[in-house]
Amino acid sequence: MNIIKKREDIPVVVTAFGTTAKAFKTYEKMDAIFKRELPEQPVFWAYSSRMVKHAMKRNSNIDIKDPAEVLLMLKEKGYSWAVLQSLHLIGGHELHRLASEGNRVDIRLSLGLPLLSSPEDYMETARAMESIFCGINPATHTSGASAKPKARSAVVLVGHGTDHPTWTSYFALEAIMRDVYSTDSIFTGVVEGFPEMEVTVQRVKQAGFSKVLLVPFMLVAGVHFQEDLTGDEDSWQAAFEKQGIEVSAIGDGLGMLDGISTIFVRHIKDALDVIPL
């Protein structure tokens, strides 16, 4: 039995990491955009973190499903195809694991690409983040379509990092962000891997900036990540302040920006388009 008769029948399985309160707020916002832009498409959510899955069951008796469980459910309902859309920002080990997990289920899959997968994605991500540059810290940033940080004030995008070959994505991001905003005051760094905190701090200092805005380059900026940015003496904020650089930071991750969800919608549509019917 195959209940797929037209492209709009193909289910989309959106795969996120976990379901903390802050993450759920972000996912709710993204889900609303997905359903608005894909009104006839059945959209399901799956969560890849086994730790979160077990914690939700233990603490709240809530049984959230991982990607394989959702795909198996769809298979049992008669679906022969599904789009498996990750919410990863870059390709890497986790994306490969997701694909492997999906392939354990006897259902044909079209894998939606991560946020940053093409030059167009990088440029759209840069434009989606305009409000961060012109609205978060009005004392040190200009506004308007050509918004860019004023001289002597740097913006540092801090990602999770990876030892996968896609670690170079962070440097590509920096280069394209600088090009889009016609500035040399945007830097990237990561919590794990390269370019690590010490390297980024020295780059900012040597460039002569006296202020810095820390921006979490993650879909959801959870508690642990915020502690890495602005927490104890080992945080990014402390490292910059030790160099005499004034620090401000924002708390929300990229998932709260509508333009980021729009990129994922495009990737979902691309994944749907390659499915033969």
TrEMBL record:
One Pfam match: CbiK
Family annotation (InterPro entries): Anaerobic_Co-chelatase
Keywords: Cobalt, Metal-binding
Positions annotated as active site in the UniProt record: H160 (proton acceptor)
UniProt protein name: Uncharacterized protein
CDD domains (alphabetical): CbiK_C (cd03413)
An example Gene Ontology molecular-function term: metal ion binding
GO terms for biological process, alphabetical: anaerobic cobalamin biosynthetic process
Organism expressing this protein natively: Desulfamplus magnetovallimortis
Binding site for Co(2+): H160, E192, H224
Gene3D superfamilies: 3.40.50.1400
Metal-binding keyword on record: yes
Keyword Repeat applies: no
